[in-house]
From TrEMBL:
<feature type="transmembrane region" description="Helical">
    <location>
        <begin position="56"/>
        <end position="80"/>
    </location>
</feature>
<feature type="transmembrane region" description="Helical">
    <location>
        <begin position="199"/>
        <end position="218"/>
    </location>
</feature>
<dbReference type="Pfam" id="PF00037">
    <property type="entry name" value="Fer4"/>
</dbReference>
<feature type="domain" description="4Fe-4S ferredoxin-type">
    <location>
        <begin position="274"/>
        <end position="300"/>
    </location>
</feature>
<feature type="transmembrane region" description="Helical">
    <location>
        <begin position="15"/>
        <end position="36"/>
    </location>
</feature>
<keyword id="KW-0472">Membrane</keyword>
<keyword id="KW-0812">Transmembrane</keyword>
<keyword id="KW-0408">Iron</keyword>
<feature type="transmembrane region" description="Helical">
    <location>
        <begin position="156"/>
        <end position="179"/>
    </location>
</feature>
<keyword id="KW-0411">Iron-sulfur</keyword>
<dbReference type="GO" id="GO:0046872">
    <property type="term" value="F:metal ion binding"/>
</dbReference>
<keyword id="KW-0249">Electron transport</keyword>
<keyword id="KW-0479">Metal-binding</keyword>
<keyword id="KW-0004">4Fe-4S</keyword>
<feature type="domain" description="4Fe-4S ferredoxin-type">
    <location>
        <begin position="478"/>
        <end position="508"/>
    </location>
</feature>
<dbReference type="Pfam" id="PF12838">
    <property type="entry name" value="Fer4_7"/>
</dbReference>
<dbReference type="GO" id="GO:0005886">
    <property type="term" value="C:plasma membrane"/>
</dbReference>
Amino acid sequence: MKRERSKKYFWLQRLRILTQAVFFLLFFVLFLQTHYPGEDYLKVTVERFFHFDPLLLLTASIASRAIYAALLLSLITLAATLLLGRFVCGWLCPLGSVHQFFSFIFKKARVLKPRKDDQASLAPKYLVLFLVLAASLLAVNLVGYLDPLSFLYRSFAVFISPLINIGLAQSGNLAYGLGLKGLGQAISQAVGNLALNGVFQNALLIGGLFLVAVLLNARKERFWCRYLCPAGALLGLVSRFNLFKLKIDPEKCINCHLCSIHCQTNARPYPAGEWRSSECIYCETCAAICPTAAISFPLGWKSERMQGVDLNRRRVLLTSITGLVLAPIFKISPLRRRSNPALIRPPGALPEPEFLGRCVKCGECMKVCPTNALHPALAEAGPEGVWTPVLVPRIGYCEYYCSLCTQVCPTGAIRELTVEEKVTVKIGTAWVDKTRCLPYALGKPCIVCEEHCPVSPKAIQLVKVDTLTPEGVVATNLAPFVNVDTCIGCGICENKCVVMDLPAIRVSSIGENRSAHNRLVLPVVEEQGQLKP
């Protein structure tokens, strides 16, 4: 029999690779554009990718009991999947492109050797989906940990971006050291234009998880897409009703199994009766490599039974119950009784329960912060708030005339504010530690915190204090005093404090506008028995 590959599907495969590259490049360009542009407002909707993610619409809406209008764009993705199949995973998803690229590298290096018959269950990602949805019913939003866009953006913002920044900075220093002044200046200019943040807390953990996800492709091609991705599982459930069905011409097929061996998601094209439509991402690889052009995808409207995915009622029910049991565990935290002073949220953040219901831990706000003040939380927000944004004044401060973080949140966890609105928002309060403050403790002059306070009139005022020095001399100096009514908790005083290690003035979350309970003093009981804040 004459062997001739299908030119049509060969070029479709090349088109798909080109489309993947274009969409990943678009994602990366928007990522780089997520920084201070020299103006008060961003001209580009840099978070637009997230608005087409139906998993975010579903989980954030259930967990927060509200629908963020921009996420309704994800209905387009669902409609397209219903008609065309799970093509988003194979053609458009930037994380899918990363996994396919590394799978290709591992195959070329002969580290990854595709097998003829892979019997591994494809159910895990569906069980993850049901667990996440069940937890959302109890207002616990876990989707940000494994949602592909959130996972990729967070990894790039917290891990890849600082690596690029450090690499460019070191390259510039090397160029200057070698006498290549022009190259050094060009690299320095590039560093300034990119405005990449240099450091993030928890970067090692987040970066390590990203590297593990990438290295798993050495074991199975597109491991994440096969076994872990809840967004892919959601699209897989919808794609059962798509228009394009795989067909194998029995007269041309030579039973070589190449299509199944090289299938990226183990959709098992051969034999035709075992094709798993919910796993097929329409990468066209099977049709392109078929030596006899026996494979095609003609139109055919009918529902396909889910093959190779053991989703019996018992497993689905058990997983859903597990999600319902786990959800309250995430809420077990002493922070529900008394707030953590280090839990300083960005300006515009919704009240904590609503914020946690909507935040998908994507890292957009962290990436756009011009002072590198926002970082992924670890223990500050309890189990439910791991990797949600917190302000860390020792590393950066909330720029007074900046509202960029409020402009990029894809789910409305941080409401959008104008600059005029933002400067009135109180996110915490500064406190002077008199045991460490130079005028109070040592009798030495220092007014750095007062000089940097951006509030008008200044929230940090100066008062005369007399300090008895070890020499027995009384030193009179101006010392800082915080007006808690006008302080907005921006953190610049703590950031600029000249006292090393533990600053002499520190910001806590107390007094924040978004909370009716996180106040300076605990409620007291009035004579009538009513609580008064």
